[in-house]
């Protein structure tokens, strides 16, 4: 199978490598000439045989919408576009509408795995028609983790559902990181009693109910910098937590833990706290997100 991939940054570049390692031919485009395979989106369309599958992996918002408009001009009727960035689920109807006018198919894909996905595989949540999902299954199987398909891949529902599921996933992630971070701060505060904070987190990695990949990443961060002295406690948010809370309000679903976690990030921008340093370190570990140096 031969696909096009637009966006070769931290995620997209690793996805291209994983796809190629699993037998998928990939022609990639990126504005960065050091990583792109072709100089323009139009030439990408020429390089990929029809009916084409093109995966879009660029920053959400106007950049994604611009790429969708470019693809509407470059692709042909019957081609399929998969939008895998962290777009808001309400944008999917807009993007699908732009492409449908030209007879081009559209799917959305929530993608989790961060900078570790090349090695471990990506969790995939996709929205679209069943026939389009079936058509793209070789791509999804190449990207997802090894093992049973249902443990790393789900066809959630219609267009928009993949990004909706990813939004909720990231809202949960916010709350989990905040819980680890608050525990870290409390352990650090009692240095008279707790002499090995890093070892305490490491001891939770097996046999405990809080063991998880996020815990493993917390241990990695603490081994690199036990006091998190090199990191500022300033933590960004990329939108999904806010959208999850908005949906909670719109549907009268109480989300106290997720809501508290995003307000804690707002607090981090006003006051340098050990807990927020831990959240910043976790985001850097799993997603390669930039940190503010102390």
From TrEMBL:
Task: Return one GO MF term.
Answer: NADP binding
Alphabetic keyword roster: Gluconate utilization, Oxidoreductase
Is Hydrolase given among the entry's keywords?
no
The protein's matches in InterPro entries, at most eight in alphabetical order, are given as: 6-PGluconate_DH-like_C_sf, 6DGDH_YqeC, 6PGD_dom2, 6PGDH_C, 6PGDH_NADP-bd, 6PGdom_BS, NAD(P)-bd_dom_sf, Pgluconate_DH
Domain (6-phosphogluconate dehydrogenase C-terminal) spans: 162-290
Superkingdom: Bacteria
From its record, what is one biological process in GO terms? Answer: pentose-phosphate shunt
Family (UniProt): Belongs to the 6-phosphogluconate dehydrogenase family.
Q: Tell me what this protein is called.
A: 6-phosphogluconate dehydrogenase
**Which gene specifies this protein's sequence?**
gnd_2
């Amino acid at each position: 199978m031969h696909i096009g991939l637009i966006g070769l940054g931290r995620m997209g570049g690793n996805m291209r490598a994983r796809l190629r390692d699993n037998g998928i031919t990939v022609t990639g485009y990126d504005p960065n000439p050091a990583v792109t395979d072709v100089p323009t989106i139009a030439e990408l369309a020429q390089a990929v045989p029809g009916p084409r599958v093109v995966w879009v992996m660029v920053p959400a918002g106007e950049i994604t919408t611009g790429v969708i408009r470019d693809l509407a001009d470059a692709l042909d009727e019957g081609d399929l576009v998969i939008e895998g960035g962290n777009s808001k689920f309400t944008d999917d109807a807009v993007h699908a509408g732009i492409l449908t006018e030209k007879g081009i198919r559209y799917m959305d894909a929530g993608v989790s795995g961060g900078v570790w996905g090349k090695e471990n595989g990506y969790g995939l949540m996709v929205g679209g028609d069943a026939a389009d999902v079936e058509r793209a299954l070789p791509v999804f199987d190449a990207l997802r983790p090894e093992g049973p398909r249902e443990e790393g891949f789900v066809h959630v529902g219609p267009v928009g559902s993949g990004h909706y599921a990813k939004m909720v996933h990231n809202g949960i992630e916010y709350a989990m990181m905040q819980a680890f971070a608050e525990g870290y701060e409390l352990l650090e505060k009692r240095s008279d009693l707790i002499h090995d904070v890093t070892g305490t987190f490491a001891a939770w990695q097996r046999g405990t109910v809080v063991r998880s990949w996020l815990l493993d990443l917390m241990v990695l961060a603490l081994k690199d910098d036990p006091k998190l002295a090199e990191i500022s406690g300033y933590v960004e948010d990329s939108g999904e937590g806010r959208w999850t809370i908005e949906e909670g309000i719109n549907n009268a679903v109480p989300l106290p833990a997720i809501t508290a976690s995003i307000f804690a990030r707002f607090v981090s921008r006003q006051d340098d706290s050990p807990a927020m340093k831990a959240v910043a370190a976790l985001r850097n570990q799993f997603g390669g997100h930039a940190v503010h140096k102390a």
